[in-house]
Known about the structure:
Blueprint: H1 5-16, H2 23-48, H3 59-70, H4 72-90, H5 98-117
Amino acid sequence: MVLEPHQFLEVANRLLNDSNYEKEPRWRTAISRAYYAAFLTAKKRLEEWGCSFAEVHRLHKDVIDGIMKRDSTAGNKLGTLFDYRVDADYKPQALILPDLGKNCAKLSELIIKKIEQMK
């Protein structure tokens, strides 16, 4: 089975609506999964256009920059979503509210649609 990028967004949305988990960890995980849905969509599209990514430590920056070159709005939004993901994953002191999780899922969906429409 090949994991598709949109499946990460499905997980994010399920987490946001699942009260079986503690609130803040659920929101943080949803933000992370929403980011990865958009990131993997962008990476896949760039690879379809012939881009390759050899340096793993620069992968996220290179993908964001690659999208930025083709559509600055989509690139900026992906960069913003990346920043939220960093806060959610690496900054336990960062204030993460439920609306941020929902907004990140919506932002991811918007980025994915924009990237899928790029030619």
